Amino acid sequence: MTTPQYDLVVFGATSFVGQILSKYLAEYLSTATETLRWAIAGRSQSKLQEVKTSLGDGGQSVPIIIADASNADQLKQLCAQTRVVVSTVGPYALYGEPLIKACVESGTDYCDLTGETQWIKRMIEKYQTAAQQSGARIVHCCGFDSVPSDMGVYFLQQQAMQQWQQPATQIKMRVKTLKGGASGGTVASLINVVQEAAADPVLRKELLNPYALCPKNHGFITRQHFVKSAEYDPDFKAWIAPFVMAAVNERVVHRSNALSNDAYGTNFSYNEAMLTGDGFKGRLKATSIVAGLGAFMLGAVSKPISQLMERFLLPKPGEGPSIEEQRSGRFDLRFFGQSDAGQTIRTKVTGDRDPGYGSTGKMLGQAAISLALDHAQDGNKTGRQGGFWTPATMFDQRFIERLTQYAGLHFEQL
Fold first, then answer.
1. Model pTM above 0.85
2. What stretch of H or E contains 412?
3. Which of 185, 222, 257, 410 lies at a CB distance of 3.0 to 4.6 Å from 264, suitable for a disulfide?
4. Domain boundaries, the chain
């Protein structure tokens, strides 16, 4: 079998996040002690050349690969040239499957930043067996959704096992701070999910299932609490409101539990929400968030209204927060865990950039590098076998160390 000439290829390098990711990799690898053979890929030679030029001195030796998301032969050739593909081409439900198919058939490792649970479920059901046979390791949700949540729970459970010799069977994540903007690609993905669910009652039911991404024989029956209105949380002494990414993150965390042989317990419960403060102001803010999310969902369901929103109110595909906005963004997530014996523990995960873009680019970059370097030796894969994994089950403490040292994240016990 021919040895691939690249360790990693960024597919969709001309997208908004793809450009952020490519620039991050160029800057990181220009000073890193690790060596990585990488390339950028997409369908437009001229746009890829623009990206390459923008990478500065560190990116001028980066090769360009032409591959269209809908061209099976080009995707097959792409996979033959690399050990890992990192994709930023979304909405994944519309454009992502051909690349998954190509990676699975060729045994190429893959990661992305999708948060589209309905698509992830379809890919697992369709390609899990083939991925196990070929050795392809597929890791979805390697951006803000769901690395801070999934690795945050992983970190808390590590602390719990060290202190109690048993896991926290109840965990809550609360968003204390979230400063950042949205890109057109993210908005398009979210609207696509809402419209798919509106047209398909089976999908609507599936999206409400907290165990939707777990293997069919998971056996979990614990009723999960999904925060869908303004509530008061006594453990945080504050009002809370729904967190738009909870529907993704909660399902990824439960899949992590299932794939790790129920390491968090068979009666594990987990939910996410946003902190809005105490007293009347906290309640009012929580109620306002609920109303705003409701209005957005109603608008997204109607194609005419959603088209008007996309045209006049929302960022266009390829648009997103400015570099300054990305740098001034940040996030602070708080976790509260409790054991069956009543012991409690608090931890936090923070990030130093806009969560969805500046920080996501770094998280996704380190996930791809970890796949290529930490989980391979002399070109051979180590650790997990082929299949669909979550961040917390594919990666380990080395990934947390990468995120801390090179991606601006911090994991702390309070």
1. yes
2. strand 409-413
3. 257
4. 6-144+357-413, 147-354
